[in-house]
Design a protein that fits this description.
Length: 305
């Protein structure tokens, strides 16, 4: 390799690998050395798969053969592949991914007679970019105060889960939740303490759910919980547990205990339900719970739990 090209090859902040048609490594940049801990002298002339057997899969081989056959460049999408080489991530976002997120490409290198000589793979570390994009997406669907999902997320996820329950004939239930006398809490203790009540309630509700359930802030002091694969009768049990946990919350203001309670309405999805109809039925059950004394769980169609 020409001296000046070699300096670029080994200095650029991108991983570069040159392979022959038999997938033997002909060049291995310093960036690749640093992130793989495989020194240049150990890998040169050796089959790439000896060091990275996980690359020996149909998608990688198909892309490689296409570059060899047609002489075109091939870009490997990070969104589809996540990474090509299983390198550990570094930097501020290292803890967010098991492996470095990579944007990669394969392209042909030709000799002076325009004959294909090598295939070069470039590896860009895009971990920071992907982490920032992920955070932005999360911020867009999270409630700023409580950290749980927001109304925008609820509307999309409710439609998705209801469609899935109908398609596969699976149970699906919704719980609407309201903090009792929340206006009185704000008036008596101030909005800052009201925010504390909202955050504590959200944390309590979330702690009792499965990873497949979704808790959202519906608006104000109202929350909505989506329970896939859950019959209405089972959702009532979940709601009753939430109600009891709210009573047990240890909140204080100025050293004095403050007790709160919640009312809950439960609705199990039917074949006739639309997303809005299901929410309306759960909301009507919640209204019944509040009108009949609060601190209660009521199932849809007025059946008290």
């Amino acid at each position: 390799m020409d001296e000046y090209y070699a300096q670029i090859f080994h200095t650029i902040d991108v991983g570069l690998v040159m392979l022959d048609k038999d997938l033997r490594v002909q060049q291995w940049s310093r960036w690749m050395e640093q992130h793989s801990s495989i020194p240049f002298h150990k890998i040169i002339g050796r089959p790439l798969f000896d060091f990275f057997p996980e690359l020996d899969h149909p998608r990688f081989l198909m892309n490689f053969k296409m570059v060899v056959k047609f002489g075109n460049s091939c870009f490997l999408s990070q969104k589809l592949n996540k990474y090509l080489f299983p390198f550990k991530p570094a930097g501020a976002f290292a803890g967010e991914f098991e492996y470095m997120q990579q944007s990669c490409a394969m392209f042909p290198l030709r000799d002076e007679k325009n004959a294909l000589k090598y295939i070069c793979i470039s590896v860009n570390d895009v971990t920071e970019t992907v982490a920032c994009e992920t955070r932005l997406v999360e911020m867009n669907v999270r409630d700023g105060l409580t950290g749980i999902y927001n109304r925008k997320f609820l509307e999309a996820k409710l439609t998705e889960e209801l469609d899935r329950s109908k398609r596969y004939g699976r149970a699906f239930s919704v719980i609407m939740i309201d903090i009792d006398h929340f206006k009185k809490v704000n008036d008596s203790y101030g909005h800052s303490f009201g925010d504390t009540v909202l955050k504590s309630t959200a944390s309590m509700l979330q702690s009792g759910l499965r990873t497949t359930d979704f808790l959202t802030r519906y608006g104000g002091e109202e929350f909505c919980c989506l329970l896939p694969e859950t019959e209405c009768s089972s959702a009532v049990i979940v709601a009753e547990r939430m109600r009891a946990n709210a009573e047990a919350l240890a909140l204080t203001h100025g050293g004095n205990p403050v007790n709160i309670s919640i009312s809950l309405g439960v609705a199990g999805a039917t074949a006739a339900d639309t997303p809005s109809a299901l929410i309306v039925r759960a909301d009507e059950a919640l209204y019944t719970a509040k009108k009949s004394g609060r601190n209660k769980v009521v199932a849809s169609q007025g059946r008290a739990a």
